[in-house]
Design goal:
alpha/beta; globular; binds S-adenosylmethionine; 6 helices; Rossmann fold; 7-stranded mixed β-sheet; 7 strands
């Protein structure tokens, strides 16, 4: 366990040094507590980065399995290395591809969306058929570092304004989606939990 802590610290340091966005501590605590409380066992993650959240989720319980997708080769290879270091190869399946090219037959009781923020609706619709009834889709970064709460004129960059608009659209999409009950949590960078009815 002590070994795990220092390896986790090294992954977090690598992420910081290389500007790789990984979940903040409050967010990861929320996610792992959710997996524990709801007895989640089969998880699909969109956006592996270097494997940090996949490893943290797998460490919740020996029954937990994670399938995770990453399109950036360097990050994927780093994730392969990290998963090996934790000897979690039998419980974490790493897929190197663009998520939109991946079609899975398997069903999951949790889908965690943590990839390109402007594409959340598309990810949701691409993978929701893989979610069991009663299962949940969790999405991170709905506050987008506080920018979602700002007025548009306060955001100077055009790209960022577009991205924030997309995140707002996603929030409205979740609120009006009657096939799911969605709860929003002001935790970490803003998290939603959409439970399939
Ligand atoms: N979940 C990771 C964690 O907390 O450790 C962080 C993921 S990071 C915020 C988002 C990742 O999603 C990036 O590494 C990016 O390359 C990947 N990504 C973005 N769009 C993607 C897509 N369409 N298919 C696969 N990966 C994608």
């Amino acid at each position: 366990m002590v070994g795990n802590y220092s390896m986790i610290r090294e992954i977090k340091e690598y992420a910081k040094k290389n500007n790789i966005p990984i979940m903040v501590d409050d967010g990861i605590d929320f996610l792992t507590a959710f997996i524990f409380k709801r007895h989640v066992t089969n998880i699909l993650e969109i956006g592996t980065a270097i494997g940090y959240s996949a490893i943290m989720m797998a460490l919740v319980h020996p029954n937990v399995k994670v399938t995770t997708i990453e399109r950036d080769e360097k990050r994927y290879l780093e994730a392969v290395k990290n998963v090996k270091a934790f000897e979690l190869e039998d419980r974490i399946t790493l897929i190197y591809n663009d998520a939109f090219n991946v079609k899975l037959d398997e069903e999951f009781d949790l889908i965690f969306i943590d990839a390109a923020k402007a594409q959340n609706i598309k990810f949701f619709e691409h993978f929701e058929r893989n979610l069991v009834p009663g299962g949940a889709i969790i999405t991170d970064n709905l506050k987008f570092h506080g920018l979602v709460e700002k007025e548009e004129y306060e955001i100077k960059s055009k790209n960022l304004r577009g991205l924030v608009r997309k995140i707002k659209e996603y929030i409205s999409y979740l609120k009006s989606n009657s096939r799911y009950d969605t709860e929003f949590f002001n935790i970490g960078d803003g998290i939603s939990v959409s439970t399939k009815k």
